[in-house]
Queue: 3 jobs
Job 1
Amino acid sequence: MDTDVLVVGAGPVGLALACGLLQHGVSVRVIDKAAAPAATSRANFVHARGSEVLDRLDALGGLPQESVQAMTITTYAGDRPMMRIRFGDPGLGTAAPPMVISQARVEARLRKRLAELGVRPEWGLALVEARQDTTGVTATLGDGRTVRARWMVGCDGTGSTVRTQAGIGFPGVKVSERFLLLDGRLEGEPALDRSGTSGWAHAEGMLGAMPMPGDQWRLLAYDAAFTVDKPSEEQIAERMRRILPERTGLPGLRLGEVTWASLFRVHRRLAEAYRAGRILLAGDAAHVHAPFGGQGMLTGLGDAENLAWKLALVIQGRAEVALLDTYQAERRPLATAVLRGSTAATKVNIAAGPLGRFLRDQVLMRIFSQAWIQRWTTYTTSQLWVSYRRGPLGKTLAGRVIGSRGGKLRPGDRVPDLDCERGDGSRTRLHTELRGAWAVLGHGTGTDAAFQAARRRLGERVVQLRSSGSGNSPALLVRPDGHLACQGGPAEVTRWLDGALG
């Protein structure tokens, strides 16, 4: 074998997956058909869950300091504000902030982390063919060479060659079309508030402006009337210059220098399966949806983290191949929910008829101005709520839910980023210790025995942490992705591991 895993695609999902696998001691090669990394990107918001994933990969670095903390969305009808949503910490115990930052910067930070782990993406190498057998996958590359890997993961986007080679269907529908997207500078008066995103509801289509680092703005506009086929960046910029004052009702606002422009169509598609034999899919290769809500890169990063520890255990012989079936079982339902939500948001934003505009501007705008709705929106888009308690790893083989802590935290739930201490007494945070490792967290006599039980099955990649409090409490076995595996003593830990890993 040339490598344990061949990752196809060096975008954020492929890079995150490669970093995660390397943290778990698995060898990786990363290829991408592009000649070089992308300097521009569509995604520009990382919700709290995505920041947590980057932090657990030790790839967050200085991204929070580089980002713009624009945590409000204000929707206008002309110059009249109709709705304001404030994002922030939904109170779910995270030390990782949401960030307004270019996907290109996120990718750069992941490439730096990947290099620290000893691997660099191989650019200009397209996958031509993938043939799998009982022991691995043989990949034929664009330069004629072949690579032999135990497993292959397609992180190569909506037009995934990996998915096609695996014979996995990608059904879906076109939701809408013709969104203009660009990065540039805004000039003139009045100057827009850079503390948040501004959006305008207009009969011809919505327009949004989000502040970006470096005094840049990300502009997005639905424009069904723009019918130029395969427009140039200059044509897109000129069209935006025309509709910007019309839709904002601000004649003095002008679009200045444009650094990047694109036109895209929205589709909703979901792969029929996330795995075919020794080939798996993650990110946009498995699901694609509208950009509203900033869920695309976020969901893909979650895919990568979920898959990394499971694939590593299988490769290292610590788990049966059946563990990989839980990847789809845990992640595909989430993608389904994201597709539904983003599709609904798209239809609301592009409502063209009088009734649709009335419901959006007069009904929904009022509803979303309520504080409790804003808290719900922050909670929902953060994805900190994601739980796998209904999945196969949240139950015993008999299907009975393993004991819960007062009914508040159940197997499969995300465990907050708790304050705790290491064996030497030094302070730390739970998620800081989950970098390629499992954690046994607790205090009391049973914690040591639970830790030893976990080590017998998982090897050295288990850390023991002491939680705050006094007296005895059941130990928590926490997965590398921050979700609760089980709680209890050595018998409960052994039972869960035997059931989950086979």
Job 2
Amino acid sequence: MQPHKLVWFRNDLRTGDNHALYHACQNSAEHGIIAVAAITPTQWQMQDEAKCRVQFWLANLEKLKQDLAALNIPLKIIHAETNQELPEKLFKLAQHFNVRSLYFNCEYPEYEQRRDQQVESLFRQQGISCYTYDSDVVLPPGSVLNQQGLAYKVFTPFGKAWRQLYLQQPSTPLPAPAPRAKRQDDVVIKSGSYSDSCNQNYNESYNESYSDTVPVEVGYKNRMGADWSCALWPAGADDAHRLLQQFVHERSHNYKQLRDFPAQPGTSSLSPYLSAGVLSTRQCIAAMQAYSEDPDWFYSQWVTELIWRDFYRHLLVAFPGMNRWQPFKPEIEAKISWQYDEKRFRAWCDGETGFDIVDAGMKQLHETGWMHNRVRMISASFLTKLLRQDWRLGARFFMQHLIDGDFASNLGGWQWSASVGADAAPYFRIFSPMRQTDRFDPKGEYISRWLPQSQDGPLFAQNSVRPAPVIDYSLERNRSIDEYKNSGG
């Protein structure tokens, strides 16, 4: 059989700006190209993958198969329950098709690095070359360092150094996305497919309780969450790029002014595509360069938010304890007494706290699998600093429900909210649900959208439908500040 190169797709479901695919397709006259992706239902459970995210990933995988077919590259599907089975199943596929080299893009959470190391070890032992690329970030982890040669712990100097390094890249005028892979010669190998039963089996088995990393007495089982909405996030790179260009053309110039108002279409809402790798950060920056009318687009707030994505990935590599749910600032968390109150935690999960902006956000999450970023911060602050529940509980609950669930960004955001993370919010910064509503939803439009029973007024609508507040805000705020003060935050 003709020798082949194997390209392994994970959360990089795109043919454009895909360094692994691009390099595999170079000098491939004597080698055929085969792509592969793995269906791993039990592993998805273990990693708190939301149902809607898996559905979205599978739909984009099908679109990827079509895009690869246009390049004459077949996509094979393998099934493995967990990462433990994955190396052997990948190797059997490689043996069957006489694979001489494996190509894939790096992922940075520790459990994914461990998976990749096991695959590489097995393949190299069998004489198969492995080539890896940093296609999920713009600048690779370890490349943005301070004057002491150490990783940045604060975002602002990281962002400044990131921009300086970006502008110094050899590309002219700015680093561009990797070229699209070239079309291959005709192939006789057919693409694989996954059966509908795979998704059904995943749905039926998903009620997974919390692992030992989170106190079992507050083990709130996943309630399946929302189904993926193709109307909100149509699958495929074509639609992703259409939405990207639409955002840059129509809304990016007002992003900084409108991004914190949840009732306004002020954000890009592209995070699901970034999470599944249908879009890359580099493609988003290239779109800003090509389509933005702002001469200072490179220093815009939206580009800053994209740099935050790189920052959290760099942190995972530089400070591996974060991957194991350890706080970036353990000296602060050591003096915090998490309350582990199941009743309060359930009220937060269900959107029944009696604080309308928090509850509206949780209802949006349950219905759509997405929550506006400002409301995410409000909800996270409420859980950790007012209900005084362990940030890990909220982080896992978000991952189990978010269509854009991203381990690095979600982890970093929750540690920031609890004041135990890198560049975290100061201990005395506690979002007041009332004040946040006054500032960012003054007409109650967002709250009324997700809590229709609150149309008579956005704040604490007291009727037979809305629950009473689960806490006395002033009392809990003072208690929390006193505790954080004692921690030396």
Job 3
Amino acid sequence: MRLDLQPSIPNLPSLLPDETLYSWCGAVHMWNGNTSALQTSRQLFGAPYSGLLHDFPSQLNQLAERTASVLGPSREIALRHTLLGYFLPWVAPDLSEMIISAVTTGSAPHLKMQLGITASRVGGLHPLKGCLECFDEDEQQFGRAYWHVSHQCPSTMVCVRHRTALYVVRHHNTPVHRRGWILPRSGLAKDWSAVEIGNSTQLAILTRLAQFSAHAIQSAPASFTPDRLASTYQLALEAKGALTRGGSLRSPQLDALVEATYDGLHGLRGFTAFQAIAGPASNAAASLSRRRPRKGHPFKHLLLITMLFESWEEFQSQYVDAEAATERRSKIEPTEGVPHLPADRDLFLRLMKEQGLSATAAAQLVGITTTTGITWAKAHGLTVSSRPKSLNAKLLKQVRALLVRGIDKQEITKKTGISETSLNRLIVSEPEVAQAWRSARLQKTRDLHRANFLSLLQTHKGVPIRVLRKIPGNGYAWLYRNDRPWLEQALPFVEPRC
């Protein structure tokens, strides 16, 4: 017998912009004063647990039928209000459509295995995350705070809107054992812990990673294919000197590039994908950029893209170039003993050789990115000169001096006008300067955490350490991992690892 929802759930709130379906279900439960979360889920989905799954809800067609489709099409809900929109752009067309069909018409018990999450070493718990400033704005504008889909991306640790670290929810029960909803300002009891970001340089790179993640989640299913992604990465890696002309990775240069980009973030607690790409870095990069690439978790792809490209538009342009080159190569009939070049690459090389154009000018005429042009020029032995106005000897001396002092990369780019790409290349190419910069940064970070923790001890005298550790920005975890001898001297005792 069909359930008549009208008397059972009279109050259905609007599904707000960027709101997770899980958050909306929690609001339904609260608005209607229901006592049983399982009953609310049955009323909405016809199943007791579908509404309690915060990352991948199922039975979406049942939800549409029982709510008279007030939330919109089931497919749109799946792609824009759950984490499926984060994973499916990297999945093959047939598999992505099969997954969408499964979560809309029924359930998908093996979904995380199909998406490759279980084998990725990234982790599949997907803790709830949120921005305190967003919650305040949500309450003022909509009357309730809610979980934002863009904040739930595994690779998102910063709120792009407010450029602040997200807070991560800690709950003693795993999602399958919860009998209620965790909501930002209500619901089940929860503990918060802020993502620990050491300095403005780390904040800047995590913000760019979050921006790229937001672009990815808006992409259509099956937007990116492994082969074309691999070609895209190869072009960018070669341009940065981390790939030989023969297509082999230069591990030392790649490791230095990763270190320069994600300095101090490899041990970020709760985000093991950093360790998966950076220790050693060549393993993840090789698996995603080889001629026969392996499937990879979106987090790993986004870490590579953030490291190799300054903007999402640059990545997309390079991807289109790689796609066009792949299609042209597949159409060219090979002649024995005679190497063939795509037409636009041949034109680009002739413009540089015969007309003496710069790589930038030739690339603009051919209609490719400068990065692609430089890669082609170097691969064919052409000299590509750097712009003297950006990298003259006086400027380089100033940049080196700032690096040795441990100044943030973001501050250096503002003071000198040098681009972030040029700065990263300088760090990669001069190991002694890079080591001096990292040592100075470590000392500054250590001094900052020591001062903050001592101030915390002074303002909270007599408060147990286990309580101090819950105060946002306390720095205890960083000191425990990186400066334990000092921590042991500053405290009468140091608690053991949990």
